């Protein structure tokens, strides 16, 4: 991944560059101390990602993004911000910002966000390659291609913003396992059995299945927590957001989403206590994946 850093604070630029370089996350191909001075360089270099400060003199981060988009830059943006203002955050989301890095800069947060961004970049690149391949096939053949179970699940997880989380692969494996069973009852089998089945199937016999199934459980729980936070953030900004409207009431206990929305609006620094219902999440995901997969066959 190729990064360009725009921040009027030299210390912040230096720290971000150090984190990217030492973490082997990619290359910093350029930097600028203001939005006004970065325009021509970004357009010329076309980095994959621009890390840009929200508050800068002359042109702030949002105004700079608008100018770059108007001049044809198609890469991704990550906003760097010391303040959390609901209106400004909402405007940033409208401009296509997917992630925020908070000041003071934290190494763990930066590494986590850049890894998620890289995963999304790879996913979009894969989707683009698939589309280009389909364009080379006749129209009559395009309609015959069915999405795989993995593609359907990843599409849903992407809508919730958790495609790059460590538990996303475990979730895909569980749904693939369920879809390969001849018959699955309306209610899923005990989660413990599911985790152990996936651990046994995906790991070698030398691995402690019980220990690995526990790790799968924790990874999935953390991933669902991220989904709750993502949807609550969307809902707190725009209650009519389509992803929020669709996924929040179906996949989660909506009261937990509502509590997290209140927590976000109050800008509390204390971590909210959220109850995670992994079984409901996996149950709904399995049923939706099954419906979408079967519907493809009916529409052939």
UniProtKB/TrEMBL annotation:
Response regulatory domain ranges (all copies): 2-118
Keywords noted in UniProt: Phosphoprotein
PROSITE patterns (UniProt xref): RESPONSE_REGULATORY
Record-listed 4-aspartylphosphate modification sites: 53
Top-level lineage group: Bacteria
Family matches, as Pfam families: Response_reg (PF00072), YcbB (PF08664)
GO BP, sorted A to Z: phosphorelay signal transduction system
Coiled coil region boundaries: none
Stored SUPFAM superfamilies: CheY-like
Name of the molecule in the record: Response regulator
């Amino acid at each position: 991944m190729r990064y360009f850093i725009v921040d009027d604070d030299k210390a912040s630029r230096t720290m971000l560059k150090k984190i990217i370089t030492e973490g082997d996350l990619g290359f910093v191909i350029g930097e600028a101390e203001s939005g006004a001075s970065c325009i021509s360089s970004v357009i010329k270099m076309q980095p994959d990602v621009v890390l840009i400060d929200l508050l800068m003199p002359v042109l702030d981060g949002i105004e700079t993004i608008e100018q770059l988009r108007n001049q044809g830059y198609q890469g991704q943006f990550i906003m760097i911000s010391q303040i959390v203002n609901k209106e400004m955050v909402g405007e940033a989301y409208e401009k296509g910002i997917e992630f925020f890095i908070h000041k003071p800069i934290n190494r763990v947060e930066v590494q986590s966000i850049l890894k998620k961004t890289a995963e999304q970049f790879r996913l979009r690149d894969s989707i683009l390659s698939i589309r280009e391949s389909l364009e080379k096939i006749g129209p009559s053949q395009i309609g015959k291609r069915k999405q795989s179970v993995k593609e359907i699940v990843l599409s849903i997880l992407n809508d919730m913003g958790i495609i790059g989380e460590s538990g996303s692969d475990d979730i895909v494996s569980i749904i693939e396992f369920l879809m390969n069973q001849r018959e699955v009852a309306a209610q899923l089998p005990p989660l413990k059995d599911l985790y152990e089945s996936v651990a046994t199937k995906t790991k070698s016999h030398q691995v402690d299945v019980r220990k690995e199934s526990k790790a799968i459980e924790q990874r999935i729980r953390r991933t669902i927590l991220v989904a709750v936070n993502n949807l609550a953030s969307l809902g707190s900004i725009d209650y009519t957001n389509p992803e929020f409207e669709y996924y929040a009431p179906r996949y989660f206990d909506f009261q937990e989403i509502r509590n997290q929305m209140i927590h976000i609006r109050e800008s509390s620094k204390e971590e909210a206590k959220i109850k995670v219902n992994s079984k409901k999440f996996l149950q709904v995901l399995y049923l939706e994946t099954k419906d979408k997969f079967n519907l493809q066959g009916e529409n052939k």
